[in-house]
Amino acid sequence: MSRLPVRKTYKLFIGGAFPRSESGRTYDAEGANVARGSRKDLRDAVRIARQAGAGWSGMTAYNRGQVVYRVAEMMETRRAELAGLSSGADEVERAIDRVVWYAGWADKLAQVVGSANPVAGPYFNFTIPEPTGVVGILAPEPPLLGLVSRLAPVLVGGNTAVVVASEAHPLVAIELAECLATADVPPGVVNVITGLRRELAPQLASHMDVVALDVTGADGDLAELERLGAENVKRIVRGKADGQSPYEIEAFLELKTVWHPIGM
Amino acid sequence: MATAPVLPGGFELPLEPRLPRLGSIDAVALEERAATLATRSIKKGSKVFALDLAIRVLDLTTLEGADTPGKVAALTSKGIRPDPSDPNIPSVAAICVYPNLVAYAVERTRGTGVKVAAVATSFPSGQSSLDVKLLETREVIDAGADEVDMVIDRGAFLSGRYAQVYDEIVRVKEVCAGRAHLKVILETGELGTYDNVRRASLLAIAGGADFIKTSTGKLPSSATLPVTLCMLEAIRDVHEETGRVVGMKAAGGIRQAKQAVQYLVQVHETLGLAWLTPDRYRLGASTLLNDVLMQIRKERTGRYQNPDYFTVD
Question: What is the CATH number of the domain that holds B30?
């Protein structure tokens, strides 16, 4: 007997759940009806990302690295699905390898980015990296590798993220969200909104509770996004859509310097 | 909706035998009505009006064991000028504090129009002798409080000793008369049923309450929309039958601007515009103010706001 296959509805990923857009709207992408997220979905995602920040940044760096590594494990088990929604097996494998590469950096950042600074005076002086907070990401193409390349450094540094998925190829971002939901990434640490860039990007850029904006995947009026982001002095980050470096992580870190007296 | 319970005509005494026989509230209908009103979509102009009103009817409250004169001073400054960067934001209605901090609040609010409310009568439990309660009430009024928030003795009420509860309200009212407004806290979270809430509301109104108030804020279950609706309907029925005007104060657990708007919608739908003034309606809250300020700034600037840019309280 033939069986009617169950088709998947692609929805948003907010706070560890997969809700439809509060607006009820959808748009057509890649032959599917995809949730067309609204500014209120974005608002909810930012609020939840902020709440999730304390737990995620409070984890030990080693533990955080383990969680990111598990994301790679979950992606490995879904290689076929991810390949079907991206450019193919090659992109998926490179994306998985990139996650593993960044996972290894979690507990090595402080040693590489931080420093013990010689100063003239009876003091120790340390520089320690700390996460920035809620980071907005406008995901670049290619849809999987580009997203992973921008998301992994944000996560490894202890930030939480609100991702606006590729407008033309949003499905793989939700597939990746399913990997994140089944890895041990706490709810709210990563939130994925699908929808129209021109609606969502300005809201993300102007939100006072988003402290950094990754515009690597921004198209259109970049200057306008920068202007909106200036109100709360957001970090505007332009990185590589396909590349890996500890400095991509550093771009989302605050370097805090501590003075400590000695010899007294 | 079910027919409204019969009121004790004119509240003539003895009230006690009448109260247990008040008709029962239709809980399902009440909750459904409250839930329906909460779904009202309030946009733009109405929303800005509601947010502005929420500040004007706010009793900015601090009732912690750790309260100090310094904290009251900070709270009072915030109540007088909630957003120092925006002179269009109105002052709150009152500052609500414990009895021994009344004097500090009175000193700080002098000449501003912001009133001082004091909790009295062994807040929050109400478990002490009548003499102690009356003494406390007298003290806070002498210290300059404009409003007294008294608690009823829930133990007596739940045991059916309505006369005792009534007498206490009457005696406290005698102390307040002409000098301070009396708000009677029912602590609905301990009353158990809507029938009891209505009974206690009528008892408090009969005893002379200027306002009836939901909760102390010290219980996990405080003000809820159905409970306040139940009390508002009691106020409405009294007003329709006797013409007497009684105010309402919802307090406890109202932390978000969205909730505040829902409470205001409920008042407007039940009692009308006449009740949407600080003389007849109050919201008791502490953290609510910051959220309302954030929403107002969101409406003005179009940007979603960050709590880090608002004062800690």
Answer: 3.20.20.70
